Amino acid sequence: MKKTVLYEEHCKNGARIVEFGGFLMPLEYTGITAEHFAVRESCGLFDVSHMGEIRITGKDANKFLNYLLTNEVPIAGEMTMYYGLLLYPNGGVVDDLMVYAFDSMNYLLVVNASNKDKDFEWITSHREGFEVDVIDESEKFSLLALQGPLAGKVLGRLTTYPLEELKAFTFDHFMITGKEFLVSRSGYTGEDGFEIYGSDDDILMLFQELINHSEVKLCGLGARDTLRFEAAMPLYGHEISEEINPLVAGLGFAVKLEKDFIGAEALRKEKETGLSKKIVALELLERGIAREGYIVEANGEEIGKITTGYMLPGWEKSLAFALISSPYSKIGTEVAVRIRKNIVPARVRNKKFHDKKYIR
Fold first, then answer.
1. Which pLDDT score, from 0 to 100, does residue 137 have?
2. Residue 315 CB: number of other CB atoms within 10 A?
3. By CB distance 3.0 to 4.6 Å, which of 63, 67, 282, 301 could disulfide with 320?
4. What share of the chain is helix, strand, coil (3-state, %, to 5)?
5. Topology of domain 276-349, CATH
6. Strand, coil or helix: what is 171?
7. Is the CA virtual torsion 298, 304, 306, 307 positive or negative?
8. Which conformational region is residue 211 in: left (phi greater than 0), alpha (psi within -120 to 50 degrees), or beta?
9. What's the rounded Cα separation, in Å, for the pair 38 and 60?
């Protein structure tokens, strides 16, 4: 099992360690609820060094990326981030990822930890005919996510860089505590915040510095999941997968069907004929928590399954995402969730659980 450079720090600070994506990672420190609220109200610090980084460079780098990805990556989009998905020819999802566009010949893809090797093989297997180099740089980077309304205040103490000029989904190289890092204004929580890439030694040093600030609370993967769910962000293997394509998942904003990419034809056909299933948000009307895999019913018949479900911190009703038959996907539709032996009524609702706090 792999460990990040911060593993000993996690143990020292009382983290509950679990296996995730082939790594031993902190699930929680003082509790998911406290960590969730810290990010919403103050500032949380996450170790996300398990994520994978794949570099694509060369004369055809932009052309190659636009062939691979659902989203458009413009040639002029320097020092900007883009969300996109790698698809199989049938439209199923290989992975979703963030693209860091340095220039039209240099891109860094940040991919899910458990999919990194699969993604690298998929990308390299399709580079024939393109003048590009594809390099797995995952061992080069460790990564911190500093998230929450006070993240800018905390980071601002440690750098002279004008953080107010760094807008959401842009990035730059700059000095923090005398060391150079790659920093983006981004995250997976729906709050303002930063993702900070550096060498193992520099990230360890920065982690040890940041936890000395009173506003900063250490957070684990448990809170990261409740936060991303509340912010209506998909998780691979749940709201997107080899069986759940981005149109079904409601990610049409990141799918440019007017361009040609792997899987585009399959998505065009499905859009033409109509989606048979959709990912929707549910609100339970009675007590109970709709866990992943629980059956969703209508009129006593199975119409789908839960993909993610929580009683979120601060909420009085349990919420869930579910993959269900399209005829039942209209907001306000009454359905039910089978929770063990109980049938709990639920209603389809909008996915806006949380107003995102991005700095535009």
1. 98
2. 12
3. 282
4. 25, 35, 40
5. Elongation Factor Tu (Ef-tu); domain 3 (2.40.30)
6. strand
7. negative
8. alpha
9. 43
pLDDT at 307: 98
Centroid of chain to Cα 17 = 21
- Blockwise average pLDDT, block size 10, the chain, 360 residues: 97 97 96 98 98 98 98 96 98 98 98 97 98 98 98 98 98 98 98 98 98 98 98 98 98 98 98 98 97 97 98 97 98 97 97 93
Q: Is 201 helix (H, G, I), strand (E, B) or coil?
A: helix
Q: Between 3.30.450.40, 3.30.450.20, 3.30.70.1400, 3.40.50.620, what CATH number should domain 52-138 receive?
A: 3.30.70.1400
Non-local (6+) Cβ contacts of 208 within 8 A are 9
Instruction: Name the residue type at position 78.
Output: E
The answer, as to whether pTM is greater than 0.70, is yes
Q: Are strands 216-218 and 43-47 parallel, antiparallel or unpaired?
A: parallel
Q: At 177, list the tokens.
A: 């505590």
- Both tokens of 151, joined, read 């993240």
Residue-level pLDDT at 292: 97
One-letter amino acid for residue 203 of the chain: I
